[in-house]
Amino acid sequence: MHFNLKPGLLVPLLVGAVMGPALQIQQAQLWPLPVYVGLCVAAVSLLWWATHRHRHRHQPGPSTLWAVLIASMVLAGAATGWRAHTFDAQRLNPELEGKDLALVGVVATMPQSHEFGLRFRFTVEQATLDGVAVKIPPLVLLSWYAAAAPHEAPRALPNLRGGERWKLTVRLKAPHGNLNPHGFDYELWLWEQGVQATGYVRINPKMSPPRHLATTGLHPIESARQTVRDAIYARVADRRQAGVLAALVTGDQNAIDRADWDVFRATGVAHLMSISGLHVTMFAWLAAALVGWLWQRSPRTCMVWPAQHAALVGGLILSLAYALFSGMGVPAQRTLWMLATIGLLRWSGRQWPWPMVWLLAAAVVVTVDPWALLQVGFWLSFVAVGVLFATNMEVSTTGTQRGYGRALALLREQWVVTVALTPLTLLLFGQASVVGLLANLLAIPWVTLLVTPLAMVGTVVAPAWDVAAWAVGALGVGLEWLAALPGATISLAAAPWWIGAGAVWGALLLVMRVPWSLRLAGVPLVLPLLMWQPLRPDMGQFELLAADVGQGNAVVVRTARHTLVYDAGPSYGRDVDAGHRVLVPLLRAWDEQVDMLMLSHRDLDHVGGAPAVLAMQPQAALWASIEPTHPLQALRPATRCEAGQSWVWDGVRFDILHPLAADYDRSQKPNAMSCVLRIASAAQAATQADIPAAHHTPGGRVALLVGDIERQQEKALLARGADLRADFLLIPHHGSKTSSTAAFLDAVQPVLAVAQTGYRNRFGHPAPQVMARYVARGVQVRDSVQCGAFSWRSVAANRGDCLRDSARRYWHHSGAHAAAEDQAL
Questions:
Q1: Are residues 793 and 778 in the same domain?
Q2: SS (H, E, C) 477-505
Q3: Do 111 and 14 have their domain in common?
Q4: Of the candidates 3, 6, 28, 19, the residue with the CA atom closest to the CA atom of residue 814
Q5: By C-alpha distance, which of 609, 647, 607 is closest to 624?
Q6: CA distances from 266 to 491, 748, 810 (A)
Q7: Which helix (H) or strand (E) covers residue 112, if one does?
Q8: Same structural domain for residues 730 and 787?
Q9: Structural domain range at position 204
Q10: Are residue 64 and residue 161 in the same domain, yes or no?
């Protein structure tokens, strides 16, 4: 089938190639495969008809343009769905989750170390269950823990290397991550990486131990990367400086300390410290310049092939090698496709207008990786490139400027990109760096022209790493000073996407080379982003969000003008916790000023994220049942929770029902000391004398947050005659068998109840027999595994919203509970 594609049809064709996947990735569920195949056939037929309808016309008519646009959208969208359906068919069989599987395969990536052990991708060649062959996804993400159980002493781990073939006993589960508003979509990230199962290596005396079978010739680049990374750590004594060098050379971003990431983000230079599109682009430009210069040294080579063509191809080949050695991350892949597209266009001698070049590059990248449209890096890089094109900034890389002129061009380029990207940064991250312009003016040439080249040279001449480490340290001192300045960053509430899109256009107008009368038209487009505030409950009402933090509690309660955080979720490791990963991004996106952080008790799944929340919210009061010697007391002295304490915020009453003051004098396990908080909207609080009559509204509701109380505490609350009636109940102790007694549930009579649990958690929460008690009483039960973050409002007490329902996409795991894993890791 021949397509008579005229130049005038390129724009609708390219627009459709981007819009089709953009619409398809909004699907909550995939359609049957024949539907996508049929749509592809129909789209190809429509495209052929449209391109041949007026083949003799010089300019296509409107109907032809629309037909090409629709055909391109349908074809690109259906092709994306076809690919997704094919990949989705590789999902792990739920019946194999938690089973001891014997795998034979090859370590596919350079293993990454963390405080508990190793993490690596494993290409599966053979899988068996009890000696019977089974089918599992071809690529899995595995962890190898140093300790088989939390109470065991750690043991030495093998020096795994990319390309080694191993026989391992593992337990796998479907990819499942936490799903929260404005949070990281871990399941999308795994989908885009081609991973369809995660798990861990089983170490048990009753099982065959892991066995190294052979060192293959597969994945030689991964083995080389690991050799270089290990050499950097052996050479550079300062682990933080070594981590930055390892990230710049080998792409191991996990090597960078979390404290350094915080500084890099606060100063707006985080994009420099990982193998981003900027690094690959700069490397391609420098490589092309070097190849062109060397090519011109020989007249004979110039006669065979023009130097500009040799420079172009050489730059692309060398940048591909650099991207491969740095791990070939998704951002590097996108940049390579963009560079290859623009390079081939220049090689062909075609002079397209910049919007066409920009659109072609975007269409190629989206065609290769449709899910890139959901990645922050895609929008930052393509908007930045579009801004540079639109403001005629590409001249700064021609090499025709000298000295002072080039410095001015660099300054203006950085100013333009900073101003234009600030609205997008605020939209995507909820914060922007005020010192970012100055920090980038210093850091971009320092990192790209000094640190990175020295780090690369160090792979051949090791002493270069010493100089590179010194350069990293010197830069770190300056960045830490900038990050510590008052007002170094600004935070705003995350506005809707359409407000953000308008603000990006407004910022672009402000920096374009057009009359000031047109530039000022961008101001009213930017202002809504700066002034946006999320809606809050009315006076006398409240709302809460039970965050999806895995196995742990974290609830955000908001009234008209106040905010309380009840528990801060678990710690996932030394540098990772629910505070940094879930609560801080959420509170920043809502632009919240937390008045109180209440920690029900000392268990790590309730206080693990507290340091991050306290650091972000210096004005927040800390209430807890923790002991005076607890480490959190050094961060902020805590007020003890005691039954009888109460206060009113905006017509909403808060009452602490447990523990009693006398309980602190008795030796009890932490669960027994859980702070029980009752929250009542105005109508329910109307009997209290301190509630203003103006705030009394009909239909008042109650929420009860109970931490990890168990049957003894439930019985004590009933014996004291505590007012337990509530519409919303945070299920005690995550649905443990030791809680939620029948008498307690009869007293509470909740309409809705939520259990905050982790997928396939080793405790078996929530227990089936406990859930049966709720169901028998007609309670609507939600658990965070199947629900994700759950939001509830006192004005609509009979219903709530599960994020896994309202924001579902086809790559999201269903979250159906399976049998719990063994206690041992």
A1: yes
A2: HHHHHHHCCCCCEEECCCCCHHHHHHHHH
A3: no
A4: 28
A5: 607
A6: 11, 46, 34
A7: strand 112-114
A8: yes
A9: 94-218
A10: no
For 175, residues 6+ apart whose C-beta sits below 8 A from its C-beta are 186, 187, 190, 191, 195, 196, 197, 198, 813
* CA 418 remoteness from chain centre: 23
CA distances from 90 to 190, 195, 365, 760, 811 (A): 13, 10, 24, 21, 12
Task: Give the amino acid at 765.
Answer: H
pLDDT digits (tens, 9 = 90+) for 102-158: 999 999 999 988 778 899 999 999 999 999 999 999 999 999 998 766 566 677 889
Q: 3 vs 8, 48, 222, CA distance in Å?
A: 14, 6, 43
CATH number reported for the structural domain that contains residue 705 in this entry:
3.60.15.10
**Rg (the chain; Cα; Å):** 29
CB atoms near residue 193 (< 10 Å): 15
* % of the chain surpassing 90 pLDDT: 57
Asked if residue 69 and residue 100 are part of one domain, the reply reads no
Residue 607 near residue 647 (C-beta atoms within 8 A): no
Q: Which of 218, 233, 250 is the last residue of a domain?
A: 218
Cis omega (within 30 of 0) for bond into 659: yes
Q: In the predicted model, what is the mean pLDDT of residues 403-412?
A: 61
Least-confidence region, from 241-255, 273-287, 525-539: 273-287
759 in the Ramachandran plot: left (φ > 0), alpha (ψ -120 to 50) or beta?
A: beta
pLDDT higher at 585 or 691: 585
Tell me if 405 is assigned to some domain: no
Considering its fold, how many domains does the chain have in total? Answer: 3
The answer to the question of residue 694 being in a domain is yes
Q: Is residue 343 part of a domain?
A: no
Helices (H), 538-650: 578, 584-589, 604-607, 610-616, 632-635
Shared domain check, 719 and 607: yes
Sign of torsion over alpha carbons 391, 392, 393, 394: positive
Question: Which single residue is written with the structure tokens 């005691």?
Answer: 642
Query: Alpha-carbon distance 183 to 408, whole Å?
Result: 39
- Other C-beta atoms closer than 10 Å to the C-beta of 27 total 16
Q: Is there a single domain that holds both residue 44 and residue 147?
A: no
Give the end of a domain, one of 53, 88, 123: 88
- Please report where in the chains the tokens 């801004």 appear, as a residue: 387
- The 10s digit of each residue's pLDDT in 12-69 is 999 999 999 999 999 999 999 999 999 999 999 998 888 876 565 667 778 888 999 9
Q: Which two tokens stand for residue 546?
A: 């039970």
Residue 78 lies in a domain: yes
User: Structure tokens of 296?
Assistant: 């011109």
Instruction: Specify the pTM.
Output: 0.88
